[in-house]
Amino acid sequence: MAALFLAWTATIARGDAASALDTADDPAYDSGWTNGSNGGYGFGPWSITINVNGGTFIGSSANNAGGSGDIDTGGESWGMWSGADGDVNVTRVFSNGTLAVGEVFYIDLDNGWVASGGGSVGLGLQNSAGDNLWEYYFVGGDTDYTINDNAGQWDSGIPWTADGMSLSFQLTGQTSYSFQ
What are 151-171's pLDDT values in tens digits? Predict the structure, then answer.
């Protein structure tokens, strides 16, 4: 079983004011992280699709992958898990519809062990049709995380870690971006 923990915010790069913000310790998630739940501001409600052998939860990332790393806010993160034949997809739209040029999407990601032979974990930014325009993911058995964008699929140079990571994606033009 693999677990993925997420903590995220999206902010405008031209200033300090956040155009969207949500954390797993928001009271909207006191009863759990479920389809249609909606905390924070600047996002639409969560759309959660769980196929066989998977689920979502609110928990601490401090015990993920043997207890290394921690991306919690207020002691909590959003969590997803799946078994060998499981599939969990969560999506959320920006309330204003798009990420504007100059805005930055920040996310903390803490994935546990990922099974070799087809297991993968990651995230994507989609257009309004639900097509992934940019993806960042790890495939079990690989050495580094992979990026898939309009230039194709390529090695990010970022090695697998169970310690969690803080990522930022800034839209710098209609079809260009900066990623760290």
Answer: 999 999 999 988 888 899 998
